[in-house]
Amino acid sequence: MSHANLMNNYFNPNSVYTEKDFRRRFRMRRHVFECLLRDVQQVNPYFRQKLDRAGRPGFSPHQKVIVALRMMAYGSPADSMDETYGISESTCLDTLQQFCDTIVQVHKDEYLREPNQEDLNRLIRKAEDHEFPGMIGSLGCMY
Q1: For 92-100, which contacts have Cβ atoms below 8 Å and span 24 or more sequence positions?
Q2: How far is Cα 107 from Cα 48, in angstroms, rounded to an integer?
Q3: The dihedral sign for the CA sequence 79, 80, 81, 84
Q4: Nearest residue to 66 (alpha-carbon basis) of 28, 102, 111
Q5: In this predicted model, what pLDDT tens digit does every residue of 45-97 receive, in sequence order?
Q6: Which residues share a beta bridge with 51?
Q7: CA–CA distance, 42 with 84 (Å, rounded to integer)
Q8: CA dihedral 14, 71, 88, 53 (to 10 degrees)
Q9: Category of 15 on φ-ψ map: left (φ > 0), alpha (ψ -120 to 50) or beta
Q10: Would you say 40 and 65 are in contact if contact means Cβ atoms under 8 Å apart?
Q11: In a 3-state reduction of DSSP, which class is residue 1?
């Protein structure tokens, strides 16, 4: 039922909440969420829906990724996810760990590296456009 509510609220045609609502609540656009969902499902079997011990469908990939993102975006405690998403504290913590490990595995070469000159030039231009000079020197990854 939690999965059905989640899909009805955010992902089905004529969903309850708009794209703007999704972005505000999850700190990203829906298409970015869908890319992350696809990436983690392809790499980590944890994010594929399975049957539980009673033979019922377990938590959906959407539920797992949403829970991980909500915990990170808002610093929500794992035990607060049960009321909305029906996922226990221990499962939320496992999900967050699996999500973070998988994202690092998938995206480390592109995003988790030292900035190259092209990256620095782009950041400097962006900082100047927003009247934030000296931003590069404040990045901890520079040293």
Answers
A1: 92/67, 95/46, 95/59, 95/64, 95/67, 95/68, 96/67, 96/68, 96/71, 96/72, 98/44, 98/46, 98/47, 98/64, 98/68, 99/40, 99/47, 99/64, 99/65, 99/68, 99/69, 100/68
A2: 19
A3: positive
A4: 28
A5: 999 999 988 998 989 999 999 999 989 988 888 888 887 888 899 999 999 99
A6: 57
A7: 26
A8: 70
A9: beta
A10: yes
A11: coil
CA distance 70 to 53: 27
Helices (H), ranges, 16-143: 19-26, 30-43, 61-74, 81-85, 89-111, 117-129
pLDDT at residue 136, as a whole number:
59
Rounded CA-CA distance 94/81 in Å is 13
Q: What is the dihedral of CA 100, 74, 30, 82, to 10 degrees?
A: 80
Q: Which residues of 107-122 are buried (b: 16+ CB within 10 A; e: fewer)?
A: eeeeeeeeeeeeeeee
Domain map of the chain by residue range?
2-112, 114-143
What is the pTM (predicted TM-score) of this model?
0.75
- Which residues is 57 bridged to in the sheet? 51
